[in-house]
Amino acid sequence: MKAEWQAGGNQPVLRGKTLGMVFQKPSLRTRVSFEMGMLHLGGHALYLSPNEIGLGGRESVADVARVLSRYVDGIMARVFSHEHILELARYARVPVINGLSDYNHPCQGLTDFFTIWEHVGRLSGVKLAYVGDGNNVVTSLLLGGGKLGMDVSVGTPAGYEVKDAVLAQARAFAAESGGQVSTSNDPYQTVADADVVYTDTWTSMGQEAEQARRKAVFPPFQVNARLVAAARPGAIIMHCLPAHRGDEITDDVADGPQSVLFDQAENRMHAQKAILADLLA
Ligand code: CP
Ligand code: NVA
Question: Is residue 273 part of a domain?
Fold first, then answer.
């Protein structure tokens, strides 16, 4: 998809197809990359804001799924509760794509593996160190990295670890693929020998009430020049964005020569086009 786009444009494999995009939370990348992706493939995307749908409030999730299925060829949804993704999928007659839930962020994960492959040249055996909150983004990195034979190392403050069930699932995948999964409460131990250093916001959407407490706990996990120096020389730096510069990542690192932050953002569009073509063409 990316090579075709760079060579002048994609084949219109989704001509006449439509995607309904349901958002319960704000978005820049997910909204614009899905919308442009549909456009590039000859289809059309419809943005449905939190105020319009009122998923589970104005109307039940099941009814939203049933109704949208009569109009569009696919649904992409960004929700608070992961249960709502599962419920949409259960009642929709068209494919449902998870555009981020409180549990995971699979489109981001798929994009990130593509970006690592572009920059590092392989995935198997690559050490991906994630430093920060044990949240939705690292859940997708663990589950995907486990399947892909990567060495995924996660460093979080005590009390902000990834859920045990996610770690167990990732370890089961890693046992099959030859990958590795490790956890620590020490950011320096986490990034030792890492090929990739990844971070995300300390306070995810929906956790705003905890922001002050989190800002007090997370500073030792900031991705700054000192922490990057403890990784493998030339390690790439990743962040799903939006970045809170000066909190989880410093400007010099985000804008430095090892940063691939904006390649990641661009690659959302290419990776999602592959998902869309696979599901809707
Ligand atoms: N990374 C990501 O999903 O960004 P948005 O929240 O802007 O969509
Ligand atoms: N963990 C972040 C990711 C944003 C793309 C959040 O859920 O807000």
Answer: no
Shared domain check, 141 and 237: yes
Please indicate, yes or no, whether residues 50 and 125 belong to a single structural domain of this protein.
no
- This prediction has a pTM of 0.98
- Tell me the residue range of the domain where 257 lies: 106-262
- Rounded distance from Cα 74 to ligand 2 centre (Å): 23
Query: What interhelical angle do 61-71 and 82-91 show, nearest 10?
Result: 50
Q: Does the pLDDT at position 54 exceed 90?
A: no
Residue 26 CA: nearest ligand 1 atom is 6
Can you tell me the distance from the alpha carbon of 126 to that of 113, in angstroms, rounded to the nearest whole number? 11
Ligand 1 within 6 A of CB of 21: no
- Name, in order, each residue with C-beta under 8 angstroms of 148's C-beta and a sequence gap of 6 or more: 113, 123, 124, 177, 179
Report the share of the chain in percent with pLDDT over 70: 100
